[in-house]
Amino acid sequence: MRMKKGMLALEEPVKQIGAIKRRKESKKLYVDFYYFGRRITRSTELNDTPANERKVRAFLDKVMQRIEDGTFKFAEAFLGATEEEKEFFTQLEGREYRPEPHQVVFGEYVKEWMATIFPTFGSPTKRRDYREAIETRILPAFRNMTFHQITGMAVFRFTESLVWKKGIHKGKPLSTARKSNILIPFRSIWNDACDHYRWVIKSPFDNLRKRLPKTEKKEHTVIRFADWLTFLDNLEVHYRPIAELMILTGMIPSELGGLRKDDIEGNYLNVRNSYVLGVEKKSLKTAFRKRQISITEAIRKRLQELQNRPGSPYLCTMVDGSRFNSSRFCKVWKKAVDQAGIPYVTSYSARHSFAAWSLIIGVNPLRLVKLMGHASKQMVYEVYGNYVEGLEEDAENIFRYFGRDFIIPGKSKSPIPFRDSTGDSFANNLLTFGDC
């Protein structure tokens, strides 16, 4: 019989005997004995009944006999003990601690993993997402299982059980993408355990992707120009230049939060840092996101309005003067969308709209790659290059909104040929411009 997790106390060595203990605050039976001069008091998780007392007595007699024979193995007898305890006593027994998967309880290993590996993750967003998935989803399902018991089928059943816990979708299955995100820290813990204990075992995550339903590729919403103006009319005045800066540059809220007033240098706005979950990061999502944005007349107008706001070294602030907070801003954004009565768009839609708007007025895709901070033009074509019904009707307004100097920086007064196949007044008024 093997006991589950209990308590370990260190006291002065006494005569090595085993006893069954009871505690006033508990209805469980406890074993109490000394091993290598250390007192071990551990719950059996068995209720205090005569039958269970006999079971515990038999177990304790075997323990004492094996201790006397020198064959007792603490790690095998107490699977629920912490990894630190198991390693400590195994070393005292003169053996190397190399437990097998059936000897390591997942929940106990996670405690060690959270204390040693988890803090090494530099991203606060990653730490937040990992902690939430581990504490609210993974541990409740696998805490008391050994690694041997965590099979591919067990993981699949786990993914099938994942549902929304609150909100309007409460009780409905999570999307495949969300399930996959929850499995990321689970897989990381599994791989780290295999590396730590040098296990060569089949991963329960192999072939799991084939069992999960495929997620339909999400189409990113592009804002029509008239809807954008309606949205701005309903957005709090303080946030209008911030929202316009987003759609004129393709910047995202976390990048706006990292902007300082001294990031404006001459004709360029330097995107160097980001601000996420109250933490300033000296790096961006990728190395390519660190970029210089040429300041057009339209962009400078919004920058000057933001620069003139006193009281903060940061370019973007909340209405109360505090540093720009993307989570709070998203709520302000949603309120304006609801009041405007336009199709639902998120603040991230401004970035997608910037790309689609740029393409519709003839910006060279290779230049757009640099403007958005991507590594290659693949993202431009695959994510932003989809046809948007009716967007070509907005081309003239978008062109005027962005300004001629957006097409060729520094050439705001030079006529630029405009390519337009419709032959409408836009082509006649602006001439025609091609890919530049």
From TrEMBL:
The keyword DNA-binding applies. GO terms for molecular function: DNA binding. Residues 211-400 form the Tyr recombinase domain. GO terms for biological process: DNA integration; DNA recombination. This is Integrase. InterPro entries: DNA_brk_join_enz, Integrase-like_cat_sf, Integrase_catalytic, Integrase_recombinase_N, Integrase_SAM-like_N, Min27-like_integrase_DNA_bind, Tyrosine_recombinase_XerCD. Pfam families: Arm-DNA-bind_2, Phage_int_SAM_3, Phage_integrase. Belongs to the 'phage' integrase family. Keywords: DNA integration, DNA recombination, DNA-binding.
